[in-house]
Design a protein that fits this description.
Elements (H helix, E strand, L loop, with lengths): L3 H4 L1 E2 H10 L4 H4 L9 H4 L2 H12 L4 E5 L5 H9 L4 E6 L12 E4 L16 E6 L9 E4 L5 E6 L5 E3 L5 H10 L10 E3 L2 H13 L4 E6 L1 E2 L11 E4 L2 E3 L8 E3 L2 E2 H5 L7 E6 H7 L10 H5 L1 H18 L8 E6 L10
Helix pairs in contact: 5-6
The structure holds S-adenosylmethionine.
Length: 332
């Protein structure tokens, strides 16, 4: 009988197959059935992105990791006239409005040829990069960094030392010299490369990556790898039954490509507020003057509150990079 070790392989590979292999999680499951993103929470995200596209003089929006097209459908409502393109690993969702185009993608770090769709567009990736598998490393009992391996059932062991390029990334972005055994590093190089490959396809465009992230001064010592299933956080077992995700080292992603004319890192809260989203409740007087408008404005304020919450979606990081167009200020 083969030993457990024989079934064990680098976590990154098991993660990739569990999400994007044949019958992988994302080939069958709709994100909205398992967790709530800003795109699910409110059409106000679409409203803000439509405004950003307009202010940058862009004629369309390309949504990388489109799920079932929730953001695109909201954009069709709030940004009439925008050319909309969705990209994901499933065939075109039946719920997608007919005016939007759809491109199938291989998944993970790999993108299809967008055939010019990303030129002159706002290219949005809401919670794509956290789903790009990356090597997971751990400091062993002798203080050496080794690659975390896993079985399909989720039992983890330590394998070889990391590759030279991964080690170089660790030294630059997530140094762990002298850290105690058990310390982990999630090597963001695969996310940097994935983002750079998207930027290369986006001429005269503005790109926005939105994700839960950390930066050099706030790397989590035991990593951030988790699973999500049916609205709950679960162990990151690569058996295709759950999403597997790890936070993004967005400061590294921001420096992944030299081809940009401007680059801003900010929070969702700051960006959305500067794009006109506010959680201010409507004046009480409106309740008597126009009760319907009052209730609508109240619901709006509630949704905005969720998108702006400092310890929730508002704390997500926005990386906004331009390859030509002028971008309005997005941090205070
Ligand atoms: C966390 S979900 C986010 C879905 C949607 N953006 C939202 O905000 O609700 C990540 C999505 O990215 C998709 N995805 C992963 N890698 C991709 C790739 N290389 N190209 C296109 N979509 C990808 C997954 O299939 C999944 O639908």
């Amino acid at each position: 009988m083969p030993s457990t070790r024989a079934h064990s392989r680098p976590f990154e590979h098991a993660w990739h197959d569990a999400l994007y292999g044949p019958k992988g999680f994302y080939r069958t499951a709709a994100p909205v059935e398992h967790f709530r993103t800003s795109a699910h929470a409110s059409p106000l995200l679409a409203k803000a992105l439509a405004r950003l596209a307009r202010e940058c003089g862009l004629s369309g929006v390309v949504d990388i990791g489109s799920g079932r097209g929730e953001l695109l459908n909201a954009l069709a409502d709030v940004g009439p006239g925008l050319e909309l393109v969705g990209v994901d690993v499933v065939p075109r969702p039946t719920s997608l409005l007919p005016s939007a185009r759809w491109v199938d993608s291989p998944g993970g770090p790999d993108l299809p040829d967008l055939g010019g769709a990303a030129e002159g567009a706002l290219v949005v990736a809401n919670e794509w990069l956290d789903d790009v598998p990356c090597p997971v490393l751990q400091v062993d009992d002798r203080g050496r960094l080794r690659v975390v391996h896993t079985t399909r059932e989720g039992s983890q062991t330590l394998g070889d030392p990391p590759t030279a390029p991964d080690l170089e990334w660790v030294r630059r972005w997530w140094p762990v010299d002298g850290a105690p055994p058990g310390t982990r590093v999630e090597v963001g190089r695969s996310r940097d490369l994935a983002w750079a490959s998207l930027v290369r396809q986006a001429h005269n465009s503005v790109l926005v990556a939105i994700d839960y992230a950390h930066h050099a001064a706030s790397r989590p010592p035991t990593g951030t790898l988790v699973g999500f299933r049916a609205g709950r956080q679960v162990a990151p077992v690569p058996d295709r039954s759950c999403d597997i995700t790890a936070h993004v080292a967005m400061d590294a992603v921001a420096e992944a490509t030299p081809d940009v004319t401007s680059s801003v890192l900010t929070t969702q809260r700051e960006a959305l507020q500067l794009l006109g989203i506010t959680a201010e409740p409507p004046p009480h007087a409106l309740a008597t003057q126009n009760p319907t408008a009052y209730l609508a404005a109240l619901a709006n304020a509630g949704e905005a509150g969720e998108l702006l919450a400092r310890d929730g979606l508002g704390g997500f990081v926005w990386l906004v990079q331009s390859r030509g167009p002028q971008v309005p200020p997005l941090c205070p």
